[in-house]
Write a structure and sequence with these properties.
The protein is of the alpha/beta class. About 50% of the residues lie in helices and about 15% in strands. The protein has helices at about 10-15, 20-30, 40-55, 60-65, 90-95, 100-110, 120-125, 130-145, 150-170, 175, 250-255, 260-265, 275-280, 285-295, 315-320, and strands spanning about 1-5, 15, 185, 190-195, 200, 210-215, 220, 230-235, 300-305, 310-315. The strands form three sheets. Strands 3-4-1-5 form a four-stranded mixed sheet. α2 packs across α3 (about 40-55). The protein is globular, with a radius of gyration of 21 Å.
């Protein structure tokens, strides 16, 4: 079990971030059979053809080999976000800036307990340009597997951040951690995480970086070279493959129209137009037109979170949907 001791200044210093390369490596592990699929079976089936096209690339094979469901993974391959709203290009630049001796130490630690890699993987890991090869492999996997879905993925993550950050700011640690994972608990000033290791860490005023993820479950990066980071599965990952939401009675649809009724039901929590367009399989422009009408009618409101604009129901919209 990991025990993370929290001090008085850690709440204000804590923050949320999105880490695209963590998602890339986790998705690669799922498709390579290195991690349990869990609830992501529909996405895995859809992504298999794209994976087959890149699976033979030596660097992609090496990355898949390094992925493991438990235990240490080389930090430079899956860097936690140093700040919110990092792009894939920025994270790849961080990977490429890793000194070779540091990368070799991390790879050696990553390989502990794994079977001997085959000749193709070993050639990549022993190469003098190993860092660049693995960075290129991450970029290849990103373009093939996640870039087509990134707008929806990012919306899922941002939606979760708004929900969780609001709970942390308004109610503190216990409420923010409630429902985060069955493996995480708040107990007398300590965050307990059921991770296959036994260690105690002290935040010491630096705070904790929360990173919602789609393609993996609970994880932590608590080495001193990185910001203390706790990764957890975001809410609403089914938006990757689901279309329209479950419908209520026809009463609300008769009043405001079917699409606007569906939007109101989806907006119990904040969401971007991209996420809504993915759920309803409509263009972003079409969703925007309907949201403009709902906003002018006082049924939804909008707010900015970083670079994104999020919509949510107003109290009047809640009453209307509650009567549906």
């Amino acid at each position: 079990m990991y025990r993370i001791e929290v001090g008085p200044g850690d709440l204000a210093a804590s923050r949320f971030g999105i880490a695209p390369l963590i998602e890339v490596h986790s998705a690669l592990g799922l498709l390579a059979g290195r991690m349990p699929i869990g609830p992501l079976g529909p996405w895995v089936e859809r992504a298999r053809p794209a994976y087959r096209r890149v699976a033979g690339e030596p660097a992609v094979r090496a990355l898949a080999f390094l992925r493991r469901p438990h235990g240490y993974m080389a930090d430079f391959v899956v860097p936690p976000p140093a700040r919110p709203n990092l792009t894939v290009a920025e994270q790849l630049a961080t990977v490429r800036a890793t000194p070779l001796d540091q990368a070799r130490r991390e790879i050696a630690r990553n390989l502990e307990g794994l079977p001997e890699p085959d000749a193709v993987v070993r050639d990549v890991l022993d190469a003098p340009d190993m860092v660049e090869r693995l960075a290129t492999g991450l970029e290849t996997a990103w373009r093939a597997l996640l870039e087509p879905d990134w707008a929806v993925l990012r919306s899922i993550l941002e939606r979760d951040i708004v929900h969780r950050a609001g709970r942390l700011a308004a109610y503190g640690w216990a409420e923010a951690l409630d429902g985060l994972s069955r493996q995480v608990r708040w107990r007398d000033g300590v965050i307990e995480a059921d991770i296959r290791a036994d260690a105690t860490f002290r935040l010491g005023g630096a705070g904790l970086t929360f990173v919602p993820v789609v393609f993996s479950e609970l994880g932590a990066a608590l080495d001193q070279d990185w910001p203390y980071t706790l990764m957890y599965r975001a809410r609403g990952v089914a938006a990757l493959w689901e279309s329209r939401p479950p419908r209520g009675s026809d009463a609300l649809a008769k009043l405001v129209g079917r699409t606007r009724a569906d939007l109101l039901r989806l907006l119990a929590d904040p969401a971007t137009t991209t996420w809504l367009s993915a759920r309803l399989r409509m263009s972003v422009g079409g969703i925007g037109d309907h949201l403009a009408v709902l906003r002018a009618s006082g049924l939804v409101m909008r707010e900015r979170s970083g670079r994104s604009v999020l919509y949510r129901r107003t109290a009047v919209g809640d009453v209307l949907v509650g009567d549906d």
